């Protein structure tokens, strides 16, 4: 029975094959093709020239030529995008520059008024103290002699050191004392650059960049920011050298207004040049403000003799020095040198020359109405003006 069942099974399979395929068919039977699966075609491999081989080679040369003409051209590599130039980004820095300059000179005028007022009051107090000291001079000498004998050696050394510092401070000019505060601020900011946890905040607020979201406040703070010790030392040396001349010429309050305003204005000029050329990037340093100080002194005293610290035998006039620096920065700006921010240098020099030539007359000489307004405001009592007439309801 086993062979009979095998024969029947073989006969049914043979009938199915003859019904589906003719006898002349030479292809074998693959059951998976009956289920709808097809053999995956092999992906064409690129030839040596980097082009893909066609899946089916053309029949003749003419067909190959037609396919070659119909093939799409190879796409060119993409060109790196150019940084967008957005002049609208300069509107807020422009408004900030004008507003900050006006506020700086207004605050300087009020500060000068308060300084003169306190100075007069201190002179009057010193005169009264001198008269009292003449009456009790003998008693005071004995008292201070006994007090000094009661001190320890360490306390005496501290007092002597403080006395030496006070003598050194009193021996400096008013300009040098004013610049000492600026140097101290720059030194503090330089130390903050060395703190790793402050790096993000320092880059955001102490570097000026027209592509940054924060553009106005860094215009001021970047004028007190130096990352390199050498950069700071050179800038502060130039500022210290011209401090006595600029403060004696303008006064302490006016000098501070010029210094801060020049720093903001030079940064704005840098913003404009960077936006126009598309060379966006951060900048920092007090070079713009210091160029304004140097330009102001050289414009006011063009015949003054200047020299180089390492080459004392070479001397030149202040006017020629200013012309040489402006020419060097102009060449650097036109040739695209990136060692310094030449646009900021030119902006600071332009501000210094303009202020000595025109700005002093246009701004500082017209501060009288503001000072009068402040004087009247200071004369009012804390509760406001006293009411005129009799009080009460009628």
UniProtKB/TrEMBL annotation:
This is rhomboid protease. Belongs to the peptidase S54 family. Keywords: Hydrolase, Membrane, Mitochondrion, Mitochondrion inner membrane, Transit peptide, Transmembrane, Transmembrane helix. GO terms for cellular component: mitochondrial inner membrane. GO terms for molecular function: serine-type endopeptidase activity. The keyword Transit peptide applies. Coiled coil: none annotated. It comes from Chanos chanos.
